[in-house]
Amino acid sequence: MSERSMKQSITSNRPRETLALALDFPDLPTAVSMARRLKQYFGIAKVGLELFSAAGPRAVGALAEEGYEVFVDLKLHDIPNTVGSAAKVIGSLGASYLTVHCSGGIAMIQAAADGFETGAAGAGLAAGKLIGVTVLTSEEDASVDVLRQRMQWAEEGGCKGVVAAATDLAMIRDMAPQLIRVVPGIRLEGAERHDQKRTATPAQAIAEGANLLVIGRNVTEARDPVRAAATIYAAVESAKS
Ligand code: C5P
After folding, report:
1. What separation in angstroms does the CA of 89 have from each of 3, 10, 54, 85, 114?
2. Over 60: is that where the pLDDT of 10 sits?
3. Which terminus of the chain, N or C, has fewer Cβ atoms within 10 Å?
């Protein structure tokens, strides 16, 4: 399979389906209101630790009702049995994506993959995609060997994709071209970087081979979130054409 057809087969070429909105808010009404405003630009809503702590499963249901695919970003990391059980519950909620920390090892990743699939099947839903977090973008000193090891666990453990910094994408594409590449730390040229150490513009990330871009504060904390979202959408559209 050519690189191009491989790329098309693992994710959509449409910008909206490439863009995940990180709804890092402390309450559900604020998150839903932002999600509603930005629907035309984002097809995926990401529920992270903050929103899940505030609203739990209700957040998944509310965003699915808004028409989003829901990305539950809890970065699970515990003993395999506990992670597998949590993943089963999240699968039953209809989450389209779920993250686990690859540093938890292969048995834990396998338990997550099994649990996520079983939970969805039990609820009569299509299986979601398990995504492995290789190296956090805020980790400055992770070596290439660490990344390779975590990639191998992700692939062998049943992940369908990995989260990675844009700077690591070429290596990841070489190692496991079939895995979806999810890239956070996206910033428009000259924008505030916050705590992200390895940022990339939307165009750079797409050029490096990203399949899914996670966009948070660059849009949600912008003076005009709709305008920021439209700018990012246009950048992705032109990078893909
Ligand atoms: O764009 P912004 O920096 O606000 O996005 C941060 C989001 O991306 C947060 O929800 C964070 O959990 C997530 N993320 C990350 N680095 C990773 C994985 C996820 O920043 N490796």
Report:
1. 35, 25, 17, 7, 12
2. no
3. C
Q: Where are the beta strands (DSSP E) in the chain?
A: 19-22, 44-47, 69-76, 97-101, 129-133, 161-163, 180-183, 212-215
Distance between CA atoms of residues 76 and 52, nearest Å:
13
Tokens read off for 216:
């948070």
Distance 214 CA to ligand 1 centre (A): 7
Instruction: Report helix angle 144-157 to 106-122, nearest 10.
Output: 40
Number of domains in the chain: 1
75 catalytic, yes or no? yes
Q: What angle do CA 36, 192, 222 make, to 5 degrees?
A: 25
In angstroms, what is the span from residue 2 Cα to ligand 1's centroid? 31
Strands of 16-128, DSSP E:
19-22, 44-47, 69-76, 97-101
Residue nearest to atom 14 of ligand 1 (CA): 184
CATH code, domain with 30: 3.20.20.70
- Domain ranges, residue 42: 3-240
Q: For residue 44, list its beta bridge partners.
A: 20, 69
Cβ atoms within 10 Å of 180's Cβ, excluding its own: 17
Q: How far apart are the first and last CA of the chain?
A: 21
Asked if 53 and 75 touch (Cβ cutoff 8 Å), the reply is: no
Distance of CA 231 to the CA centre of its chain: 20
pLDDT tens figures, 177-226: 999 999 999 998 888 888 877 789 999 999 999 999 999 999 999 999 99
